[in-house]
């Protein structure tokens, strides 16, 4: 059973809807909660659909569960142990990239160093491409509202203005925008806005000399001899 709260199930978080990669719905039974009835069952069939405000409905669900079931120690359950093994496997798979000494630096190594440097409540902003995908997969977020991203839309140009907005909204927190060079070019003129209004935001530009996500798609669809990005 999977409980999804305010989740659109966009292509990025679902591995482009490939069955059994991120999700297997069905046979997994989906309980889908969203304030917008149009989202329920849109991309995956919902066994149970709940329409309402997330805070209110979750409060009701918790109260109902407490009334009907006693508290259980989940850490010794087979499912919890399976999740821990999957996490360990994932970290082992990342290790050659996170610990790499190669130059230019890998994105995974950059993400590891960034996480070690930032405070736990730091806000990290992303837009599109490899920086967005790898931050979602590899950066550990510890506090609510710490990950600001264009999500499934992967809108290039989002990072810099969104990072400025995040810093204005939370001036007491560290704010870092992680962006590729192609993405950065879309709105890099907004650095002038940050300077004009004295917004101390940090933008890390990962320069891989091109729109590499688009390039990868072109190679897959057309072959390497017809790449334009």
Q: Can you tell me about this structure?
A:
With 229 residues, the protein is an alpha/beta fold. It has two domains: 67 residues, TPP-binding domain (Rossmann fold); 125 residues, Rossmann fold (3-Layer(aba) Sandwich). It has a four-stranded parallel beta sheet with strand order 5-4-6-7, sandwiched between helices. Helix 4 links the parallel strand 4 and strand 5. The longest helix is centred in the middle third of the chain and has 21 residues. The termini are far apart. The mean pLDDT is 91.
Please describe the structure with a list of short key phrases separated by commas or semicolons.
three-stranded parallel beta sheet, four-stranded parallel beta sheet, 8 helices, 229 residues, 2 domains, alpha/beta, Rossmann fold
């Amino acid at each position: 059973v999977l409980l999804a709260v305010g989740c659109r199930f966009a292509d990025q978080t679902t591995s482009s809807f490939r069955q059994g990669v991120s999700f297997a719905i069905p046979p997994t039974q989906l309980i889908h909660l969203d304030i917008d009835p149009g989202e329920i069952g849109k991309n995956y069939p919902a066994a149970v659909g709940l329409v309402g405000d997330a805070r209110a409905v979750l409060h009701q669900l918790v109260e109902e569960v407490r009334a009907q079931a006693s508290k259980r120690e989940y850490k010794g359950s087979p499912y919890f142990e399976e999740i821990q093994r999957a996490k360990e496997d994932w970290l082992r798979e990342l290790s050659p990239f996170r610990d790499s000494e190669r130059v230019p630096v890998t994105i995974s190594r950059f993400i590891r160093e960034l996480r070690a440097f930032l405070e736990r409540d730091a806000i990290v902003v992303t837009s599109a491409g490899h920086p967005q995908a790898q931050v979602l997969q590899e950066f550990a977020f510890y506090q609510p509202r710490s990950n600001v991203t264009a999500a499934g839309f992967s809108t290039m140009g989002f990072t810099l203005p969104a990072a400025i907005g995040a810093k204005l909204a939370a001036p007491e927190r560290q704010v870092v925008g992680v962006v590729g060079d192609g993405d950065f070019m879309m709105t890099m003129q907004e650095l002038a806005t940050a300077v004009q209004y004295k917004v101390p935001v940090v933008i890390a530009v990962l320069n891989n000399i091109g729109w590499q996500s688009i390039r990868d798609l072109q190679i897959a669809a057309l072959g390497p001899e017809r790449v334009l990005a």
